[in-house]
């Protein structure tokens, strides 16, 4: 074509650095990934504190890239958000997680909940509520089988719009979890207004819990705050017995982390 060099790259593309070119290739692949069925969900179990009882699992997106192998979201979620592809991918995730939840439901796991992560863009997109409703209907699931995890910054991005959407979702009976709690900038006033059921303490506060007195104080304050607001408290990133003991002692309701269970394909999830 006109303007292209003999290797097929335009001058612009040739002058891009390798990293930019890799991103362009990845974007090209990402556009095709949904159609090619390259996405899959791993599931990480959530456990009730102080018991071996599994109460549900969080769906975590993976991309089986034809050349690069299994990719975690840090490699492509940013790109998916920048390009708006996250809307279609997010719908796929929601449907796939509900399809899996239906299977668990039929296997008698009726008290489990499946948790799905939402990105800010899906949240701004007008069709989220309808999409959730339709997906639950399609799989014949009661709304309380589903937890939607949103980060603080997502919820705070456009507070009034978020509140309206969250109220509709909560009104349907869907569970709302505030993810990565403590890393954002939410005011307590808004937190109080959010119709959330669950607070997830960010992994960053759990990591050095045994050694860092500040982290221990922060976690303990978050638990107290959550209890005052009548929210379930989940700690994520639990990797050691000491962390588990500490978080149990502090009053967390449920725990998630490599110590208790890695994210795995659903068929490998040990049904505790
Ligand atoms: P997140 O929602 O905070 O999910 C927890 C992340 O921590 C997961 O990484 C999980 O594999 C990892 N993790 C769990 N336990 C441990 C632990 O004990 N130690 C350590 N070091 N890490 C642990 P993953 O699967 O790579 O996902 C990263 C992020 O990508 C998620 O963070 C979430 O924000 C985003 N994400 C994942 N799936 C989706 C999705 O379907 N849609 C959207 N919009 N975002 C997603
Ligand atoms: Ca999450
Ligand atoms: Ca998190
Ligand atoms: Ca995180």
UniProtKB/TrEMBL annotation:
Residues of the full protein shown: 412 to 683 of 683
Highest taxon above the source species: Bacteria
Protein name: EAL domain-containing protein
Residue ranges of every copy of the EAL domain listed in the record: 23-272
Signal sequence interval, chain numbering: none
